[in-house]
Design a protein that fits this description.
Blueprint: E1 10-14, H1 17-30, E2 36-41, H2 59-64, H3 69-75, E3 79-81, E4 83-87, E5 95-99, H4 112-122, H5 133-140, E6 154-156, H6 159-172, E7 176-179, E8 182-187, E9 193-198, E10 203-205, E11 208-211, H7 218-223, E12 228-230, E13 239-246, E14 255-260, E15 263-269, E16 273-280, H8 287-295, E17 307-310, E18 314-316, E19 320-321, E20 324-326, E21 332-333, H9 341-354, H10 363-389, H11 397-404, H12 409-421, H13 434-443, H14 460-479, H15 484-491
Parallel strand pairs: 1-2, 1-11, 2-7, 4-14, 11-20
Antiparallel strand pairs: 3-6, 4-5, 8-9, 9-10, 12-18, 13-16, 13-17, 14-15, 15-16, 18-21, 19-20
Helix pairs in contact: 1-6, 1-9, 4-14, 5-14, 9-10
């Protein structure tokens, strides 16, 4: 049987890093038996240095790739992440934790927060977070594998080491790495990409291309001129500085997000170092002040020179254009506030494999891929905007402007539902479940005006016992756990 003219046989991935090597490892391992896969990257081009924290969805791809967790964590100097500590976001000197998993127990008609609200009104509810085992474990700096009531978790990892780890997997599956900067991108008469030429003069021909070239967008932007949706009117931060420091204490099992005058700082603890960075808006803070702010709020010996990064929040109008799919920063950028960068890479990879154009690109697959990716970016966009908009900080022009800005109607609807009746609904494609929205809205100071009347089916004493038993169960679970430091030393010591 003759191979059809448009059958995809040669895949070219432009760019390495997390996005490129995740793509290469996944395609080669899961659907790539008959493909010729080439990844083009240059050692001269550095990585961005952010995106070193994940969310629990990360497990999906690792399970498909049959990655051994302990081995992986050792090689990437990884630690456990149970959530994110948000400091100074609601008010100065106030902290809340957005933890993974579930809080309390919900019923068919109403989430747990409705029961908690009535309990609070009656005077026998503890803090909302006391009913989350993940949050309690994070505060206690503990982690382990429980036989019952297993904890939901993700990872902190060294992105550079993770790319190397994935490269080994990909090369075992016959992915060919080609060193070199791309000089020219050649297109055919229909506008599809036909080949790339590197500085050595070598031409690399492909049937299908994946753009993992980061902010430069060599294929999706430079060659295909794909438009970009600018969201900076909602998310004004457009700069970041990343720097690494030596650990001065045992790593905590959560990411720290510390709000400052015109942006926020991240702290991501690994086994031997801490990833630090400041995300800020150049409209409100210049680079010099930003660097000073970051350097005065880090601990330990500095291990790297500050990496200044410029970005524009938003996404491509088409993640998949012609015979090219953009994955990672080339597709769009949402600041790493909720650690969604690697999640979006993973989602794009899995969707691409589900819709892969084995027999050639079709409009229907391309359109559906673009719709699903666009929807997912918008859900995350709204979630991140909420952190800025729903705040009581008024100590700087940055925060006052964020509080007063007009927000997307989709987000406004969610906030109205919550404030008016405590309702939270999970949209299809929204990575953040009802509990995530609830934790952040409560943490940012939003409080529903009423709870669902179904709560009144319980007597006051029944409700009190219900809340008390949930907290006791959380406390007992956490009591069984070893310290996070001890867990790492036994399970996955850094190699």
């Amino acid at each position: 049987m003759e191979v059809e003219k448009d059958t995809v046989k040669k895949i070219v991935i432009v760019g390495g890093g997390t996005a490129g090597w995740m793509t290469a490892a996944s395609i080669s391992s899961l659907i790539g038996k008959d493909f010729e896969i080439t990844l083009v990257e240059s050692d001269e081009i550095g990585t961005v240095g952010v995106g070193e924290a994940t969310i629990p969805t990360f497990f999906a791809l690792h399970q498909l790739l049959k990655i051994d967790e302990a081995e992986f964590l050792s090689e990437v100097q990884g630690t456990i992440k149970l959530g994110i500590s948000f400091e100074n976001w609601h008010k100065l000197n106030e902290t809340y934790i957005h933890a993974f998993g579930h809080t309390g127990k919900s019923c068919w008609a109403a989430g747990f927060h409705h029961f908690w609200l009535k309990g609070k009104e009656c005077g026998y509810s503890d803090d909302y977070g006391c009913y989350s085992a993940e949050l309690a474990a994070a505060k206690a700096e503990k982690f382990g594998f429980l036989k019952q009531n297993k904890l939901n978790y993700a990872y902190h990892l060294n992105a550079g080491l993770y790319a190397k780890y994935l490269r080994k997997l990909a090369e075992k599956n016959h992915v060919v790495r080609q060193e070199g900067r791309i000089k020219t991108v050649n297109q055919d008469a229909s506008g599809n990409i036909a080949s790339v030429v590197i500085e050595s003069g070598k031409t690399i021909v492909g049937d299908f291309f994946v753009d993992c070239s980061g902010f430069s967008g060599l294929l999706i932007d430079k060659a295909l001129k794909t438009e970009y949706q600018d969201w900076s009117h909602w998310l004004p931060c457009d700069r970041a500085i990343a720097i690494q420091t030596k650990s001065t204490q045992a790593p905590v099992p959560y990411t720290r997000s510390i709000a400052h005058e015109s942006g926020w700082q991240w702290r991501i603890p690994l086994q031997s170092r801490v990833g630090n960075g400041l995300v800020y808006s150049s409209r409100y803070m210049n680079d010099e002040v930003a660097l000073e702010t970051l350097m005065s709020n880090i601990d330990g010996e500095v291990l790297s020179t500050p990496n200044f990064i410029k970005f524009k929040t938003g996404q491509r109008t088409q993640h998949w254009n012609k015979n090219c799919v953009a994955i990672g920063l080339s597709a769009g950028f949402l600041e790493p506030l909720e650690s969604t960068s690697i999640h979006l890479i993973q989602r794009a990879i899995i969707r691409l494999m589900q819709m892969f154009p084995f027999q050639g690109v079709t409009d229907s697959d391309r359109d559906e891929f673009n719709k699903q990716m666009s929807d997912e970016y918008e859900y995350i966009r709204d979630f991140i905007i909420m952190h800025y908009h729903v705040s009581q900080r008024d100590d700087s022009k940055f925060w006052r402007d964020c509080r007063s800005m007009e927000i997307p109607s989709t987000l406004q609807h969610k906030l109205d539902l919550f404030v008016e009746a405590g309702r939270v609904f999970h949209g299809e494609g929204d990575v953040f479940a009802e509990n995530s929205w609830t934790q952040v809205m409560l943490g940012q100071g939003l409080m529903p005006n009423q709870y669902h009347p179904i709560v009144n089916m319980m007597s006051d004493s029944e409700l009190e016992n219900f809340l008390s038993s949930l907290k006791t169960m959380v406390d007992q679970s956490v009591k069984q756990l070893p310290s996070h430091e001890l867990f790492l030393s036994k399970y996955c010591p850094a190699t």
